[in-house]
Amino acid sequence: MAVVSRGFRGRPGDTHHKLPPGQYETTDFPVLSAGPTPRVDRDAWEFTIRTETGARHSWDWAQFMALPSQTPTVDLHCVTKWSKFATEWQGVSLDVLLEDVETAAEFALVHSYGGYTTNLPLEDLLDGKAWIAYRYDGEELAPEHGGPARLLVPHLYLWKSAKWVRGIHLLLEDEPGFWESAGYHDYGDPWREQRYQGD
Ligand SMILES: Nc1nc2c(c(=O)[nH]1)N[C@H]1C(S)=C(S)[C@@H](COP(=O)(O)O)O[C@H]1N2
Ligand SMILES: [Mo]
């Protein structure tokens, strides 16, 4: 017997994907950037985690490429209401990057080349929930989608997935990022439709 639940979309031969409230499915990959696309040379690229004590852990591109990577397939949910199912990425898990980082911090403020920032609880970067992604759909990540590398944190609205990521500051107190300062929700869970402050 076929069981069809409201909110579930099936595709032949595919697993079932679920659409969060208020979202629609698209098969395009829209580009949403608050400013111009920064061109970041892999030779000059560096990714730094800074803790609340000021301790820094940095990787240049070669060191970053030498880390073990994963190939997550995930659904994306943008606050502008499009969702894209089963996107295929390659990236380094934040579990790997945070492994040797000693911290008492509970919050993270993610920084991008170009100045964009976004905040989230540190625990949302852990336990297989987030990656620094550098390949998409079998290709190098295109500059407009955040290449050389972007944060990928698919369980939250896509504005949390900072493109052109350059570092993460670990903080004892939560600090709002770019969209969070402009009225968007501090956490941004698509399943609870946390689009704006007060949702
Ligand atoms: N650095 C940076 N990262 C960013 C943004 C941005 O403007 N600058 N936009 C965010 C928003 S609102 C969304 S929906 C996604 C869009 O990612 P895409 O352009 O790859 O679809 O990137 C997020 N990451
Ligand atoms: Mo967005």
Architecture overview:
- The protein is mostly beta strands.
- The chain has a single domain, classed as Sulfite Oxidase, Chain A, domain 2.
- Helices cover 7% and strands 31% of the residues.
- The strands form three sheets. Strands 3, 6, 7, 10, 11 and 12 form a six-stranded mixed sheet that branches. Strands 5-4-13-8-9 form a five-stranded mixed sheet. Strands 1-2 form a two-stranded antiparallel ribbon.
Secondary-structure topology with pairs:
Elements: E1 8-9, E2 17-18, E3 24-25, E4 46-50, E5 56-60, H1 61-65, E6 73-77, E7 82-93, H2 94-97, E8 107-112, E9 117-121, E10 131-136, E11 139-140, E12 150-152, E13 165-171, H3 178-181
Parallel strand pairs: 3-7, 4-13
Antiparallel strand pairs: 1-2, 4-5, 6-7, 7-10, 8-9, 8-13, 10-11, 10-12
The structure holds the ligand Nc1nc2c(c(=O)[nH]1)N[C@H]1C(S)=C(S)[C@@H](COP(=O)(O)O)O[C@H]1N2 and molybdenum atom (MO).
Briefly characterize the structure:
This is Sulfite oxidase-like oxidoreductase. By secondary structure, the chain is mainly beta. It has helices at 61-65, 94-97, 178-181, and strands spanning 8-9, 17-18, 24-25, 46-50, 56-60, 73-77, 82-93, 107-112, 117-121, 131-136, 139-140, 150-152, 165-171.
